[in-house]
Amino acid sequence: MPPARKKPRAYDPVKIRTAVTAQFGHVARVVGELGEEQLARPSGLGEWTVADLAAHIAWIADSLAVGLARPPAAVPELTAAEWPFATASLAGKISEAARETLAGAPLPELFDRAAAGLAAALEANTGARVLNLWIGDMTLADFLVTRTVELVVHTDDLNRAAGSDIPIERQALAACTRLLADALALKAPGGSVEVRIPPYAVVQCIEGPRHTRGTPPNVVETDPLTWIRLATGRTDWAAALDEAQVRASGERADLSALLPLMR
């Protein structure tokens, strides 16, 4: 008899909404203080400059408000943990939509408009609302968890590219870490390797002998930001090991073939 499907992780919807709104606010405040030289720097993401990256973050909030203005879908098709695997084929379409939406507007205007639209949309909709999305229909509650990934990852991108110090909300960092850990467990189900990302997540993955008690024979441990960079292709597995950002013990504790989970 096949094992029962694991119940999706539950997130506190109030905390997630607060975290998304707060993280967007942190980015908006710091972006407004960046100088022309900082905005012109390469972002490290293809041909985007820091200004392009900042505009994309504004679009993340703006597009959510636009999505909530459309008629709702009937039933959800994706969970939060499945979302990373649905995004790859739409990267070009998303970038094009963002350029069309944001073309010509100054960054402060973009962020002010997006923040107002996001606040109004969230006030008017419950987490049970099902969004009609390109990647597949999702409840608003689940989709907001995915927004913590977008915001945390791109906040980290901005900080490294612009030399800024945008704070990362603890709840946003926790949700982002957990979602990407659960995505790993979904991609490589099993119980032979335990992946620890203290203080936010522990998951088991990869087929093989299942650990039941005592110290697991195969363990991977890292910090949240390193995990997020590995999962999104910002950091290479071998480099992270060499720099002691990841500790891996056991013959199965090699995640290089599974990463990144998304880009």
Radius of gyration over all CA atoms, rounded? 19 Å
Give a quick account of the main beta sheet: strands, pairing sense, barrel closure.
4 strands, mixed
Which outline best applies?
globular
Q: Note the total helix count.
A: 9
The fraction of residues assigned to DSSP E strands is 5-15%
Mean pLDDT: 92
Task: Enumerate the strands of the largest sheet in spatial order, edge to edge or round the barrel.
Answer: 4-3-5-6
* Percent helix range: 40-55%
How would you describe the overall organization of this protein?
This protein has 263 residues and is α+β, with helices and mostly antiparallel strands. The chain is built from 9 helices and 6 strands; from the N terminus they run αααααββααβββααβ. It has helices at residues 13-31, 36-40, 50-69, 91-102, 107-124, 140-162, 170-187, 224-231, 237-242; strands at residues 130-131, 138-139, 193-197, 201-205, 219-222, 246-249. The two termini are 36 Å apart. The mean pLDDT is 92.
Draw up the topology in text:
Elements: H1 13-31, H2 36-40, H3 50-69, H4 91-102, H5 107-124, E1 130-131, E2 138-139, H6 140-162, H7 170-187, E3 193-197, E4 201-205, E5 219-222, H8 224-231, H9 237-242, E6 246-249
Parallel strand pairs: 3-5
Antiparallel strand pairs: 1-2, 3-4, 5-6
